[in-house]
Write a structure and sequence with these properties.
A hairpin with a 4-residue loop joins strand 10 and strand 11. This protein has a 7-stranded mixed β-sheet, sandwiched between helices. Helix 3 packs across helix 12. The C terminus is likely disordered. The protein contains 12 helices and 14 strands. By secondary structure, the chain is an alpha/beta fold. It is elongated, with a radius of gyration of 22 Å.
């Protein structure tokens, strides 16, 4: 994937340095940064950048290169080739704006070779107690994200992720599914559907969850091919929900499957029926890859999902997850 060539001209030295450092630390695989120290350098700007980012330019006469103008007040209406963003907001949203306006090559999916390449697929699923499924998927993503480039995809209806993120982006999983169904995509459109948190990336969750049940094997395969081959993630974590049409096909492609549930009671019979169904489908290898996860009992109510993730990540449960991801046998 070719990097976006981003030109930066910001006279506010402190803000410019902090913004540039953030880009280099978090988007180094997507951006090639070109720094400019004077407006006169931009008068004869050729094709060395794809897009400009500035806070000082009063006018912009280059109709070949889009300009993102950083302003302190609420962004005014965009002009042709000039787009406005607020200065003091999350850098991730400024990055989303950059991706939105950089032209991307539309390509057709080529179903050749492995769908996932070098990317490892991990499934998270629950037959019961699925209120802990999303917090576990986020905890697992955060732990793996300490050493890897990780993407979390939420395929569980009403998982709570959208409320946890508190964002309402223009593009989300629905956009990725449209591309996957058509077999045509661009890396810039994919990037617009992906948010960035601390040490993990995540696909913005879908709004109309009824669309999840329409995901079939072809759409699943195309989705995985787009994300694995183009975005170069080390691990993609799939938070699985109801049995959509391509459910078992996706499950068969997972290198690891974490089954989140309490022990005892009816859950043991649900687990038995689930593994029996897998065996009947000739998926005994998937049964061997299943790891049972029993979330610890929470003594006091936890106010938010983020706090629960932090609690799990740094207590004994987090240590157990780290051991499991290192291939060490450990009780859930």
């Amino acid at each position: 994937m070719r990097k976006i060539r981003l030109g930066i001209f910001i006279e506010d030295e402190e803000y410019g340095d902090r913004l540039t450092c953030y880009f280099m630390n978090h988007f180094n695989d997507q951006l090639e940064i070109h720094m400019y120290t004077g407006a006169d350098q931009l008068e004869e700007l050729g094709d060395e950048v794809d897009i400009m980012l500035s806070g000082e330019l009063d006018s912009w006469k280059n109709n070949k290169i889009p300009l993102i103008q950083i302003v302190e007040e609420t962004p005014i209406e965009s002009e042709e080739g000039i787009y406005f963003v607020e200065k003091y907001q999350e850098v991730n949203r400024i990055m989303d704006e950059i991706l939105k306006h950089v032209g991307g090559e539309v390509r057709n999916l080529q179903n050749e070779g492995s769908l996932t390449g070098k990317t490892r697929l991990t499934g998270v699923y629950s037959l019961a107690d699925n209120q802990y499924q999303m917090p576990f998927a986020m905890t697992l993503s955060s732990i793996l994200g300490e050493n890897e480039k990780v993407l979390l995809i939420d395929l569980q209806e009403n998982s709570g992720l959208s409320k946890t993120l508190g964002q309402n982006p223009e593009h989300n999983l629905d956009e990725l599914l449209v591309m996957a169904e058509s077999g045509r995509y661009s890396t810039n459109r994919i990037n617009c559907c992906i948010g960035h948190g601390q040490k993990i990336d995540y696909v913005y969750p879908i709004e109309n969850t009824e669309c999840l049940c329409e995901i079939n094997t072809v759409i699943c395969n195309n989705l995985l091919q787009m994300l694995c081959k183009e975005m170069q993630y080390d691990t993609i974590i799939l938070n699985l929900g109801s049995r959509f049409k391509g459910f078992f096909d996706v499950l068969g492609k997972c290198d690891d499957v974490f089954l989140v549930q309490r022990k005892g009671g009816i859950s043991q019979w649900r687990e038995y029926e689930f593994t029996e169904e897998l065996m009947d489908r000739g998926m005994g290898s998937v049964v061997e890859r299943i790891k049972i996860i029993e979330p610890p009992v929470i003594a006091a109510p936890v106010a938010t999902c983020e706090k629960l993730v932090e609690l799990w990540k740094w207590n004994e449960f987090g240590d157990a997850i780290r051991n499991l991801t290192r291939g060490v046998s450990c009780a859930g």
